[in-house]
Write a structure and sequence with these properties.
Elements lengths: L13 H9 L3 H5 L10 H30 L14 E4 L2 H12 L4 E12 L4 E11 L2 E12 L9 H15 L4 H24 L5 E5 L5 H4 L5 H18 L2 E4 L6 H8 L5 E7 L1 H9 L8 H11 L3 E6 L8 E6 L3 H12 L9 H14 L1 H14 L9 H5 L1
Parallel strand pairs: 2-5, 5-6
Antiparallel strand pairs: 1-7, 2-3, 3-4, 6-9, 7-8, 8-9
Length: 393
């Protein structure tokens, strides 16, 4: 099962793909004469109920097959790690983790957020990270980046103006420079979360958000210094600390998600390691400065020790992906389950939500934009450089 980077968008190529996905020809959909006039709410409700009921019934049949045929074979797949299989966390085990680890403060969670303002004259990015346990917030960290456009000073004012116009045009739209800038900002936040989790959190166990070896770290987001710093932090986390569990808030790989829905409440499955994901991530990135060997060496050294799995807190909540060190994978899964069961309808570690709430309180968009508005007003610019969306906030 591949752990590769999921695409941003679904690609439908050609009439046949469209027909397979939606059950009708694209030419029919394009014929406006086939469209409904007005809104028949009663008919619309009946159609929605019929289509959703059919889809849910199909999923239930598929779930039965996966539970009976596929889950028992997880441990016998080719290249499956020895830990692969389906396990159940008993209520007494989760209670013991509540009383022995979570509530006494022996588990810290780290999460962060970033907010940005990007206008013609300046771009500002604020990154905030919080460390929380059930004893309260034990630390907050923040950084602010100011994008300053640099242009060579020239005695020719027209040439200088044209240089600024060209530079800004190159940054606009969905061009590589603008995309790379967003990737670097995301990479800095992801790096900071893992660095603080590894080096600043004090608890025995650590809960992080996302994939520990995220693509923006294995690629360095195009920056060698970020790559070197990221690999150093991840080595310390994986080789030295080991007692961690990472849980993403979204699961975009629909094949893995389908397996997850076959789990019962309190079950978890160990699927594979991060080695294949890491190799695909490195192979799919263009390293401009010869850093590919460094990244691939890390993947082969450390990623086999990080296992990927799924857990499900209740039948009313979606399954969640988790990542843990193979030496502690069973306790890590139970820590994630024990924290998630405190809010069973969401089925996600409560401490990560608490960390996010702490970040929003200290570093959220409202306070950040308040400072930005004040600075513009003091500079005599008011709202002329703000986008329509920013002015509506």
């Amino acid at each position: 099962m591949s752990g590769g980077v999921p695409p941003d968008d679904e690609d439908l190529i050609g009439e046949d793909d469209f027909h397979a996905a939606f059950g009708e020809r694209l030419s029919s959909t394009l014929d406006i004469e086939t469209w409904d006039r007005g809104l028949d709410l009663e008919e619309l409700m009946a159609r929605f109920r019929r289509e959703i009921a059919n889809a849910v019934n199909k999923e239930e049949r598929l779930r039965t097959i996966i539970r009976g045929e596929l889950l028992p074979r997880l441990a016998t797949r080719r290249r499956a790690p020895p830990e692969s299989g389906v396990y159940r966390a008993l209520p007494d085990e989760l209670t013991a983790i509540h009383e022995g680890l979570l509530f006494p403060g022996r588990v810290d969670a780290v999460n962060g957020l970033s907010v940005a303002h990007d206008s013609l004259p300046i771009g500002i990015t604020q990154i905030g990270i919080a460390v929380v346990g059930y004893g309260g917030t034990s630390g907050t960290f923040s950084q602010r980046l100011f994008r300053k456009e640099m242009s060579s000073r020239s005695d020719d004012s027209l040439r200088e103006a044209l240089a600024y116009i060209e530079m800004r045009q190159n940054r606009s739209g969905a061009g590589r420079r603008d995309g790379l800038s967003r990737l670097v900002r995301r990479g800095l936040r992801t790096y900071a979360e893992r660095a603080i989790l590894t080096d600043k959190a004090q608890a025995e166990w650590r809960i992080g958000h996302g994939n520990p070896c995220a693509h923006e770290l294995l690629s360095g987001s195009g920056c060698r210094n970020l790559l070197e710093a990221s690999l150093g932090v991840l080595r310390r986390l994986i080789q030295d600390h080991q007692k961690f569990v990472f849980v993403p808030s979204t699961l975009e790989e629909r094949g893995i998600l389908t397996i997850g829905y076959a789990l019962d409440a309190g079950e978890y499955a160990v699927i594979d390691t991060l080695e294949q994901y890491g190799e695909q991530s490195v192979a799919g990135w263009h390293y401009e400065d010869g850093s590919k060997r460094m990244a691939l060496s890390f993947v082969r050294e450390c990623c086999p020790d990080v296992l990927r799995g799924l857990f499900r807190t209740s039948k009313h909540s979606p399954p969640r992906l988790f990542y843990a060190h193979r030496e502690h994978v069973h306790l890590a899964a139970r820590v994630a389950l024990a924290d998630s069961i405190l809010r069973p309808e969401r089925g996600f570690p409560l401490l990560l939500d608490v960390a996010t709430t702490s970040c929003r309180g200290a570093f959220g968009a409202e306070g950040f934009l308040g400072l930005v508005h004040d600075a513009y007003a003091q500079a005599g610019a008011n709202l002329q450089y703000f986008t329509e969306r920013e002015m509506r906030r």
